[in-house]
Amino acid sequence: MVTRQRVLAIVSRHWYVLLRSPQRWFDVLIWPLLDTVLFGALGVYVAEAGGAGGKGLAFLLAGILLFHVIFQANISVSVGFLEESWSRNLLNIMTTPLTELEYVLGVALFGLGKLLFGVSVVAVTALGFFSFAATDVGWGLVPIMTILLVIGWAISLFVIGLVLRYGPSADILAWGLLFLVMPLSGVFYPTEALPGVLQPVARLLPTTHLFQAARDVLDGRPLPWGEIGYGAAATVVVVAAGLAFVLHMLRVFRQRGYVTRFS
Known about the structure:
Structural class: mainly alpha
Radius of gyration: 21 Å
């Protein structure tokens, strides 16, 4: 027989878990917000720009291609670390002579191979189905992709730090943090398509300037070195912040004995 008290007890149990775990609010609050901003801004761009003079499809496909660079770079390191927690292997790694830098470099190197494969799939699919060649961006693709690769690795440092602090339940942030940056970066549209209150925030991000640089090249303009320069300088700041954050969380992890969450 179903009783109201026992049903409400289960509801209360999950409510208290939600209250005590900030990372669990991501799929309740942040995901719907991101979807609204992303597709709302995309709709505004298509409606007002009329597809950017016939280049709307090229901008969209270039955005997908370049976004996969930062996506694969982030996921390769973030999920590589999460694999150790999911398999209860983190404690074993920490008892070996392996240093944190060696571990990150190993995971990043493996992820680089996954990155090349994933981006190749996107490029071949775009060429075969939509006649869009990645080479249309020209040599400007090289510095743009390189900086995006570093940004992806930097974001993974924040993810690892949060997982060290909150445990395996924070694994949603491996995807969530990146997709928080995605709509603000103007992956498929310029920042002018975003709500006014978000535009100043978007312009601070290095990714915004890199995606804009790619659109400028596709639009037939010279490679905007000013955008590239800002993106590179801001990336240095993001990498430094990511390293400082993950090192701090590692100290907290050891001092407070959070390793028990992974055993």
